[in-house]
Amino acid sequence: MEEGLAQMESPFTSKFGTNFAPSPKEILDIQKILLEPAKELHVLDEQIAHLQTRRDKLKSFIDNHRALLSPIRRVPSDILREIFVQCLPEDRLPTHNIHQAPLLLTGICRSWREVAITTPRLWNRIHIWLRYPRSPPITEFFHSLMKASAEGLDLWLERSGTMPLTLSLHASTPSSLSSRDPWNFNTNGGRVKDIEMLYINFARHLLPYAARWKSLSITISARVMDFLKALPEEFELTSLEEFRPTRPPEMMNWEALDVVFRRSPSLRSVQLDDGYLERLSIPCGNLTEVAISGLREDVLFHNFKRVLSPSCASLRHCTLDILIPMNSTIWAIVGSPVVLPMLHTLKVQIRSPQIPTIALALQHLFDAITAPMLKTLHITSRNYLFHNDCLDRLPFVPFLERSGCTLSSFALDLPVKVADLIAVFRLAPSLVELKLRDSNIKEANAPLSEFFDALTPTPMDPDVLCPRLESLTCVRCSASASASLIALAEARNCIEPRCPGIQKLKRMRVSLRDFAADPEIPAKLKGLREQGMVVQWSSPPDLCRKLVNEQMWSDGLPMTSLHNSDWEPDPSDTHFY
Questions:
Q1: Angle CA(395)–CA(396)–CA(399) in degrees, nearest 5?
Q2: SS3 assignment for 301-316
Q3: What is the spatial distance between Cα 507 and Cα 474, in angstroms, rounded to a whole number?
Q4: 101, 265, 497, 568: which one has the fewest Cβ atoms less than 10 Å from its Cβ?
Q5: Neighbour count for residue 503 (Cβ, 10 Å)
Q6: What is the DSSP string of 239-267?
Q7: Cross-referenced InterPro entries, in alphabetical order (predicted)?
Q8: Per residue in 365-396, is it b (16+ CB within 10 Å) or e — as a string?
Q9: 3-state secondary structure of 221
Q10: Angstrom distance (rounded) from CA 384 to CA 399
Q11: Are 211 and 234 in contact (CB under 8 A)?
Q12: What is the pLDDT of residue 121?
């Protein structure tokens, strides 16, 4: 082979890489020169192909034998079952998706399939999402799809054995409010009813397993809820502990819901709309977790007393979503504060454009209860900007003083003063987690840096706010506070022996509302990460380095820019440090 290469000399070498065009005689000379090299190249290609085939066979032989030595083959079935269970999603329910556990585990090999199918804990939780065709009519394909989905559901639940079931059913139906939905054109409603009837027939496949329902979440139309009426008379849902129906009250099937509430003696957790409290007999005395949305000012405190009353001594977790329109009248709750001895978590979201109304509603709310065991308190607002308005005082401070509770988690999204913020945290020395939205913290009496300084230990002053703080989230913070925040993180990350009782800060999330130009910030944050702190800093990009998007101005301002949430930055236009 080397001899052949040595003989590869050509009178045309000097012409390589040029625009030289050979004459007819030179073309014949070049073709003659290439005869022997072409033959040699063909021989080499055959040898390479032969060697490649031999290599592939050897590799396959070796790989197949090494696969037999894989440790996973020797894992006992009971250990394999535990591994499979850990493959299930933690933040949501599994779905009927062959690309995700548990269905994914049934397609690896025969032995894994047998283990997965015979592991009931893989099959006792499921989220079902039913969707209708984009355009009428209902075809034979959709009928066959619904039939196959029902058969798949039966097979899934049969594999759950005798395990308690956690079920979520979301069935989309055409909206009668949308004039653009093709289902609402030239129809008397029969087509939509046909979809709902298919959904009802599907939902009835859940009924044979009703004795094992532990948690049931449904987002379905009032008519589809009729499937609940098919439960046998006198049948008790003795295992049902959690029920979460989701629909506006005006679209609810009260008779169907009443079937569930009347027959669920073990019910402990509910998610309700305010209207449910007026129409249904809900066993509030047994509840440990309640989430109520759509609370209106005219019935807020009437229904509030039904849920947070002396009979609700077992209540541990309460979430209230309160909507108060402009110029509403807030009625005080008459009587002594109700003691909720087991209340562990209270989350209040209040929506109103008027600060005095918010303050009065919160005052009446917190004046009505005492919670000595409260650990988590979240008070947030939504969809409103308060400009220069501010709460004169924090309406929940007397509640904390009266309760004598030891808060471990606190979140606040209300327009408050820095001085008041410092005062309230004097009452929470055991706080571990803190979440604030800084755009609503006013600096009328003190700069914002004073609050962060109060959280920062120094050798001269180790007495700081919240000495047990481990997690800090500050959303929509001004870039001017960056230096104070980093100083706080660095001081809390390197706790010296001279500061006993102060915990190390483990997590810090900061979302700035404007770009921080300090070039040292990335290096300092990198140092914190290298020392083990989980740090996430973000802001809008540096607009000084961006040019105007001419297309945006020529086509008009995009509608999405008019409706962006003021709470979170757009991930597609965010700078991470």
A1: 125
A2: HHHHHHHCCCCCCCCC
A3: 11
A4: 497
A5: 13
A6: T--EEEE-S-GGG--HHHHHHHHHT-TT-
A7: LRR_dom_sf (IPR032675)
A8: bbbbbbbeebbbbbbbbeebebeeebbeebbb
A9: coil
A10: 25
A11: no
A12: 97
Closest Cα to residue 169, out of 199, 132, 142, 193? 199
Per-residue pLDDT tens for 412-433?
A: 988 888 888 888 998 899 999 9
CA gap 202, 212 in Å, rounded: 18
Structure tokens at 48: 């390479």
Q: Distance from CA of residue 387 to its chain's centroid? A: 29
CB atoms under 10 Å from CB of 116, counted, come to 23
Tokens (6 digits) for 574: 């965010």
H helix or E strand, kind and range, residue 128 = strand 125-130
3-state secondary structure of 270: strand
> Residue 390 to residues 393, 413, 433, 435, 519: CA-CA distances in angstroms?
9, 12, 24, 19, 34
List the structure tokens of 141. Answer: 């394909």
Helical ranges in 187-253 per DSSP H: 190-203
Containing 485, the helix (H) or strand (E) segment is helix 482-493
* Closest of 488, 522, 519, 517 to residue 505, by C-alpha: 488
What residues form DSSP beta bridges with 215? 166, 242
* Residue 271 DSSP SS3: strand
Please identify every stretch of the chain with a pLDDT value under 70, giving residue numbers as ranges: 1-7, 175-190, 248-250, 274, 295-311, 326-334, 382-388, 438-447, 495-499, 548-572
Q: Where are the beta strands (DSSP E) in 504-557?
A: 507-512, 534-539
Name residue 238's amino acid. Answer: T
Residues 267, 315: Cα–Cα separation, whole Å: 12
DSSP state string for 440-462: GEE-SSS-HHHHHHHT---SS--
How many helices (H) does the chain have, and how many strands (E)? 17, 19
> In sequence order, which residues have a C-beta less than 8 Å from that of residue 23 and are 6 or more positions away?
none
> What per-residue confidence (pLDDT) applies to 165?
98
CB distance 483 to 521 below 8 Å: no
d(CA 424, CA 551): 49
Strand residue runs (E) in 148-197: 165-171
Residue 244 has a pLDDT of 93
Give the residue carrying structure tokens 């894989």: 70
- Block residue for tokens 């802001």: 539
Which distant-in-sequence residues (6+ apart) come within 8 Å of 27 by Cβ? Answer: none
Of 242, 18, 283, the residue nearest 125 (C-alpha): 242
Cα 52 from Cα 358, distance rounded (Å): 77
